[in-house]
Design brief:
heterodimer; A: mainly alpha; about 0% strand; B: two-stranded antiparallel ribbon; disordered N terminus
Chain lengths: ~350, ~300
């Protein structure tokens, strides 16, 4: 029986190898006729070719749009900074660094700009120092689905739905008329000697800053609570079995887990400090008082008020400000990465 | 397991108590101001003149009619002046917000899908571009943007803004990318074995699975564009949207509309579509905003 088997196997192998040989000859012939490509490489390249065609077609528009409206715009902005508008010839001409010296004087030697920088920094600092911890506490509350979280989540999101124009319309009247009137009724004396909270020079900046902070929770709670919901349930359960309370869970488990998202928001906050306009357009459109202006408002206002001959100077100012903001942003990012909590 | 869940839902500890009180106080402050403001739309003009603080003693709807009749904006259009009434501005808002939200969400979705599912080198390049552009603050590019919009012929038109806004940059790219990366590969493989093309896989398998994220991003973008007055003010000043029109309406010196009740009535008209959208879809918005990259 075993001998029979032993004698049958080589014959079978032989037959199989014979068919394989014939098959290979026929295949090589076919491949040779089709420009020498092997079966395997033809199959893979066809699949890859299909993927590549799809990939190129799908990304053609995004790439072109980015090239024109991001790269093109920013390259043009850099070039504009080295030009000057020749009114007589109705065209731009190269002038080197002339616009930069004028931009530098305007940015750093003008009294208005000093307060614009101060306001921008103040807004960014207060806008993060106060709302960030509260946002995290609120988000954790929503994430843990504590009492009434559904209703509170909707209420927190309401300001994100309402246009700044509407909110400012109501808030302005509240700050200008309602608060002073209620104050006088409650305490029997005037809150301010001149005007309301927004029009009085002593309180206007605080009123505008408060507005920004007051309405800033909805969006961040939405993002943070969504990120928290991605934390592995088993990690939370293990911590609960170890007897952690809410604060410990938030501090030792949740915050380290969502730290990348948190770090991203903090870095974005720093990167935006020179473009933030404090919502002044909603309050005053183009006529904000100098004491309230931020750098971002100032830049947009000058662009909208200015004409084409102003563009080179504005572009030069933008380049100087970008050169100031980029190292700050990158340093913040590095610091947050370096001193952030470890995954352990 | 069930015990833990029950405890998690109904325990009312010190943390919960403190945050609950703070949240309630905050919510009350928000709702008082917003609610009081919106109630002003129903206050009689004469009563409002007597006291601007007290709530209306009787509700009047006349302010809405006044606002509807007077909410128009006259802007320069070429050499002549053109008047836009509320229905014109509503239509422009719808085209602007709907078009921009749709084009931008589509471009972000497509780009993030390609970078998440196709391991080409260019995918890494695009992802890096998104992250770098998020963190590099470009200040003062507005003059160049306006110049570019004018030179490409896109300035002053709604469709021009659709094109200008149809980019893949920003946080939503990361949200979509995280979503597409998390989708299982098995569906794609099975469809490919059955002979589905790359486009079919994307349109018939992957896109339906990411439809909730698509809808959520679209809605958030729509709300943002609907309320945006700055972009129309800069790029299409001759075609005012509702938000832009309301801004001009608010600063109007015309007697009939230079009072808060009528202006708030106009504001409510701007708010109605957004409130309807929110009431219909608010459950879809929550829980879908994840970037991935959380620490394990």
């Amino acid at each position: 029986m075993s001998r029979k088997k032993m004698s049958a196997e080589p014959a079978y192998r032989e037959r199989k190898s014979l068919w394989r040989f014939v098959g290979n000859v026929l295949y090589d012939l076919r491949v040779g006729l089709s420009r020498g490509k092997t079966r395997k490489s033809r199959g893979v390249s066809a699949g890859k070719r299909g993927a590549l065609i799809f990939y190129i077609l799908m990304l053609a528009w995004p790439t072109a749009q980015f090239a024109v409206f991001y790269l093109g715009v920013n390259i043009n902005s850099v070039l504009l900074a080295f030009k000057e508008y020749d009114v007589a010839a109705n065209t731009f001409r190269w002038v080197g660094f002339e616009s930069f010296s004028r931009a530098w004087n305007l940015l750093f030697l003008q009294a208005d700009m000093k307060s614009a920088f101060t306001n921008a920094i103040l807004n960014q600092l207060l806008g993060y120092v106060i709302p960030l911890p509260l946002s995290l506490f609120f988000s954790y509350y929503v994430y843990k689905k504590m009492f009434g979280y559904k209703t509170l989540r909707v209420v927190l999101f309401v300001p994100s739905l309402i246009s700044g124009v509407i909110m400012v319309l109501i808030y302005t009247h509240f700050a200008e008329s309602v608060v002073p009137e209620v104050w006088q009724k409650l305490f029997g004396k005037k809150l301010l000697t001149g005007g309301g909270l927004l029009s009085n020079a002593a309180t206007s900046l605080g009123t505008v800053l408060f507005y920004g902070i007051w309405l800033s929770f909805g969006g961040s709670v939405l993002f943070y609570s969504s990120s928290m919901s991605q934390i592995s349930e088993s990690v939370i359960e293990a911590a609960q079995l170890d007897g952690t309370n809410n604060m410990q869970e938030l501090w030792y488990i949740v915050l380290p887990s969502i730290y990348p998202v948190l770090a991203m928001f903090l870095t974005l906050g720093v990167s935006g400090f020179l473009t933030n306009d404090l919502g002044l357009y909603s309050f005053f459109l183009m006529n904000a008082p100098d004491r309230l202006k931020t750098v971002g408002y100032y830049m947009t206002q000058m662009t909208l008020r200015g004409s084409v001959p102003e563009y080179p100077r504005l572009s030069a100012m933008g380049l100087i400000l970008t050169a100031t903001a980029v190292p700050l942003t990158l340093a913040t990012k590095k610091l947050l990465e370096r001193f952030g909590p470890s995954a352990d | 397991m069930t015990g833990i869940k029950r405890k998690k839902r109904f325990s009312f500890n010190l943390y919960a108590a403190i945050v609950f009180v703070v949240l309630v106080l905050y919510s009350v402050s928000l709702l008082t101001v917003i609610g009081w403001g919106l109630l002003m739309a129903l206050k009689d003009y004469d009563e409002f003149n007597l006291t601007g603080v007290a709530l209306p003693t009787r509700l009047v709807f006349r302010n809405f009619i006044t606002a509807f009749d007077h909410l128009f904006v006259t802007v320069r259009s070429g050499a002549s002046m053109k008047t836009f009434f509320i229905e014109d501005m509503f239509l422009t808002s719808l085209l602007y917000a709907g078009g921009c939200a749709l084009t931008q969400t589509t471009v972000i979705c497509v780009t993030s899908y390609c970078t998440a599912r196709y391991k080409f080198f260019y995918s890494k390049v695009l992802t890096t571009v998104v992250i770098v552009t998020m963190f590099i603050p470009i200040v003062g590019a507005l003059p160049s943007q306006i110049q570019m919009a004018k030179s490409t012929g896109l300035y002053g038109s709604v469709w021009g803004l659709w094109i200008m806004k149809a980019n893949f940059l920003g946080m939503y790219f990361l949200i979509f990318q995280a979503k597409f990366k998390a989708l299982p590969q098995e569906f794609t493989d099975a469809a490919t074995v059955d002979g589905a093309s790359h486009m079919s896989v994307f349109l018939k398998i992957m896109l339906p699975m990411a439809s909730t994220t698509f809808l959520m991003v679209f809605l958030l973008q729509f709300i943002s564009y609907w309320n945006d007055y700055m972009t129309p003010l800069i790029y299409m000043p001759s075609s005012p949207t509702m938000a832009y029109g309301l801004l001009l309406f608010r600063d109007s010196n015309e007697n009939a509309v230079s009072n808060l009740p009528v202006q708030v009535s106009g504001a409510v008209m701007l708010l109605i579509p957004i409130l309807l959208i929110f009431l219909l879809f608010h459950r879809r918005i929550y829980g879908n905003l994840t970037f991935g990259g959380l620490k394990d």
